[in-house]
Amino acid sequence: MDSARLCRCVFGLMVVGLVGLPQVVLGGRRCNFPAIYNFGDSNSDTGGISAAFAALHPPNGETFFGHPSGRYCDGRLIIDFIAEELKLPLLSAYLDSVGTNFRHGANFATGGSSILPGGYSPFHLGIQMSQFIQFKSRISALYTQLSPSAGTTPPFKSFLPRPKDFSNALYTIDIGQNDLSYGFQHTTIEQVRLSIPNILSQFFQAVHQLYKEGARVFWVHNTGPIGCLPYTVIYGRSKPGNLDQNGCVKPQNEVAQEFNRQLKERVFQLRADLPGAAFTYVDVYSAKYALISSAKNEGFVDPFEFCCGSFYGYHIDCGKKAIINGTVYGNPCHNPSMHISWDGIHYSESANLWIANRILNGSFSDPPVSIGETCFLYQ
Ligand SMILES: *[C@@H]1O[C@H](CO)[C@@H](O)[C@H](O)[C@H]1NC(C)=O
Ligand SMILES: *[C@@H]1O[C@H](CO)[C@@H](O)[C@H](O)[C@H]1NC(C)=O
Q1: Which of 152, 249, 310, 358 suits a disulfide with 227, CB 3.0-4.6 Å?
Q2: Is residue 346 annotated as a catalytic residue, yes or no?
Q3: With the CA atoms of 241, 246, 247 and 250 taken in that order, what torsion angle do they form, in degrees rounded to the nearest 10?
């Protein structure tokens, strides 16, 4: 941890070493974030891609919502546990036009999104930025229109964020996994590695744009161990010596780690560039890898088994079923909470909760501050 920087930047902040672990003591104060604005891919999509294209099928959503909620999961995602931790409602997707409430923020993340254009989804990070900018300016205009005559104010005003809340909101970002996986599918490992600086330039620009719009507190997830996804393992283990001691595909994970190393550098650069902004870099990679490597001890089944869909014998996506030669493919498992992977690519609710419990208190963050205290990290 860069403790010198913290001391310089934060009023009343003490950094003390307890049992060798740096701890940041912020006097027990809690940030009062009025809203969360999130950008990303399916790891944090709470219904965007589903609203834009086609609804997800059951059993997605079965554990928590009781029906498909637009999440690629049996229940809640890490972004949902972030909202709960901050005592805010779960985020509505910006692209969802039914039953949405943006009072406490909006979610621009959509499944398949990458940082660079030209991947799996049209809603790359640049589009998510322009959606956010349009959202913010339309809210500001609408709010002014509705303000003067409180008596006739339609109730939907309470579903809109207050313009002043944009600068006090928490901005969360979790994106990049699809840039890597799209690259692995269409180019070579080496080409993906070489493309990282370009990918991160776009990320860097997007954050500058958010800052220009008034965003000040950022919570940035790095990318997960893509080589540990069952999908990657099934399609990537062919080469001998490709797997590490935990059964994850090494070359893919090495590229993810290189991406994260450069992402962290960019975040440090952003800290230097943008006065008055607070950046927390969260090592989600290590949290996920810790879970995968201790699956058994943590009460999970083999981390490469997954609950919904099938890539073995016959490939079938979660939510579909097929009978091939008398065998039924696509029946979900009976114990999703014991699976780390929900559908071979996305994590289960219980895995998301395990990870959230470890990242939200700051133990995987730089600086190691809990999410409820990140607003005090102003420079
Ligand atoms: C189904 O049976 C046919 C004929 O025996 C065989 O060619 C095919 O590979 C089988 N498919 C699967 C998914 O097992
Ligand atoms: C954060 O929570 C995890 C899981 O409960 C715990 O193991 C860890 O020690 C905590 N870290 C801090 C810094 O509080």
Answers
A1: 249
A2: yes
A3: -50
